[in-house]
Amino acid sequence: MTPPADQIDEVALLGTPWRYGHDGRVPSTDCFRLLPDGGIGGYDHPNERGWRIDDGVLALLAADGSCTVRFDAVAVEHGRQVLRGRYLRDPAAGITLRLEQASAEAAIAPETVKTILSPGFSIAPPLLRNGHLIPPGVQATLTPIWQSGSFPAMPIQFSVLREAIIAKEGLVFTADLALVPASITQHSPAEIDWARSAAAAALTEGSLPRIDGTAVLCKKRGVGNYGHWLLEMFPKAVLATQHLAFAEMRFIVPDASGALRDTILATLRRIGVVGARCLPRGDAPVRVERLVMVDGMTTHGSYMSPLAVAAVEPLSWDVLAGSDRLLYLSRGSAGHRRFRNEADVAAIARAAGYRIFDPGTAALHEQIAVFAGARHIVGILGAALTNTVFAPPTAAVTVLAPANMPDTFFWFIAGLRGQSYEEVRCELEGPIRGVADWDRDMIFPEDLAATIFRPPTPPPPPSPSPATG
What we know:
The chain is of the alpha/beta class. The protein has three domains: 10-106, Lipocalin, CATH 2.40.128; 153-314, no CATH class; 319-452, 3-Layer(aba) Sandwich (Rossmann fold), CATH 3.40.50. The protein is 22% helix and 30% strand. The strands form six sheets. Strands 3-2-1-8-7-6-5-4 form an eight-stranded antiparallel beta sheet.
């Protein structure tokens, strides 16, 4: 029986999937679930990690435990319970969020064909300098992850969805345009709206292209970023080739250009994916006869599987390590998130014996060689630091990070490689030069220059064995 319009039915809350998103817009997901343990299923975003009932009102909780929305308006519309509430983290934005009961048929999941277990691991918190510069909200996001200590073994699932439709940066829909929750990776509601609308229009017009046979989805949010490709997309291809035996399996990858395109093709060649087996796709929707999805390898910002790092390491096995032991990474080719006095910082590094290296101007083979020989790597937080995956476990990594940038990506890489990791937070100034607030000019902490550019102390030589006679 339908509950009264002004009451919350907790049994119904737990027993049904929900459509969730901005009121008046296409829902972000049709499969939002409130789990009995207070968690959230079918949706992945740090603003919605848990739930509780407060004085009869459903509240959603962020990763740090704070309340992000209270659904204080409850109604029944067209026979379904509908809950609305204001977004509390930015009241001035006037955002109203909506939960609407969905039919059970909406919770369509791909068929799981194989599950493997990613091993558990431990990572020490970073050595943090200038931590007082980190804003409280960012600190609340980073600290629980940094202090986690141990990460349990986690399943990685290989699943197949027939007649799937993919659009934008790896968003996946069923044939009737129900969004597959596992494909949401930091996509905004507007991006989801666009992808669904583009797919619907192509279906209506009969213009939706089709990929026959089996294709592995190696595309997610961040298609233009070297680091996202190397640690979050390419490993999907590696694991699929290792664990699946579909005939004529092909691989859907970002439709990149320039150096990133060269990197995508070069890495795929190393696992035997060449020619027509590589399927670059842009934002436009496409139907796939059998789409393979590999889920559970990374959750950007909060988890990275050791198997992701292990998938990349073999790229360096036949590369001769370079002779430079000390590296300072320039972001000259990036055009943003640089020191206001970059030339002066480079001069300090050079005087301390560091090679100035801009990975954005080098081919993949050269990048691997340079990092494989390094023992101390200093650089501004950015995609070039992904190459620390090729540095030896004895290397030390010092990351110069914008004060307000909530990133753990390179901490995970260093920890999984067994490298020591230090993070120096830096003040910002001037206008935004990229896409985010942290893409501004950085102020180099000159009082820490001698600490930042200092070669790591080599381990002591082994003690001689006692003489025997």
